[in-house]
Write a structure and sequence with these properties.
Layout: H1 3-11, H2 15-25, H3 34-41, E1 45-49, H4 52-62, E2 68-72, H5 88-95, E3 99-102, H6 112-117, E4 122-125, H7 149-166, H8 171-196, E5 203-206, H9 212-217, E6 221-225, H10 236-249, E7 253-256, H11 263-272, E8 275-278, H12 291-307
Helix pairs in contact: 1-2, 7-8, 8-12, 10-11
This protein binds zinc ion (ZN).
Length: 308
Amino acid sequence: MSKIKIKKIISIGIVIILSGMLSACGGNALTKDTASKQDENKSDITIVTSFYPMYIATLNIVKDIEGVKLTNMTPPITGCLHDYAVTPSDMKMLEDAQIFVVNGADMESFMDDVISQMKHLKIISAVKGIELLEGDEEEEPNPHVWVSVTHAITQVENIQKELSVLDPARSKQYEKNAQAYIKQLKELKSRMHQELEGITQRDIVTFHEAFPYFAKEFDLNIRGIIEREPGSQPSAKELIETIEQIKVLDIKALFAEPQYPSKAAETVATETGARVYILDPAVTGPMEADAYIHIMNQNTQVLKEALK
Ligand SMILES: [Zn+2]
């Protein structure tokens, strides 16, 4: 086993098993005494997240913890990874990392081959244990679980638990940070339920399939999705059907997403008299720990305004 490989494995926390081997290789000052053994346990780790919501969740868990480097693989303007292709610099980033945090539910399935070749990389799938809704294609799950605050909480718990197993030396810090963030998320959730209690209209029409988990959580009915694939335009027939449906259901508000400005939204609005509002699925934004909470607060205000 090469020295580089050993270093990588150690940094993801399998220190106890390998410490004997390492001293056998010799020449590593870290194994000399107990004091430096602690340093060894806390060797630096590099975590990469696949896209924005995973970055924000993980940032809340690792922020302020020394020796943990967190990078997001994709620029924050990327949004969902539905059309994303891995670049050479992404590969390099993953080569240099020990842990890769993904959403799962097929959001990153385009990377399966790449990941399977990186034997050193530990994968944390944040979607574990979440009951998935069906996606727009048969037998494919809808991956947008984080748009529900309840599931966002589960994702934070999942990431923290796995991180603590992979990097036990920092497990207490991860747990403390995660608990503080989960407390904030729970407050957000109950605030949103309170605020949305009074809305009279619960039928909504959205663009792109990002909101089913959100709608389920807040008791909204998605009566139509105008563009299933982000950026794609609906056919003339689909557009006419949607316009008819909106008229029949007397829907007053359409919800577009800031990431995907839509011509179709404008057309439907003009034809039906419904207004277009922006609902944010939290796939882009500032790289700041409280960004998800801000986005959801904003969404709450938009829904209150649109559905009163
Ligand atoms: Zn999406």
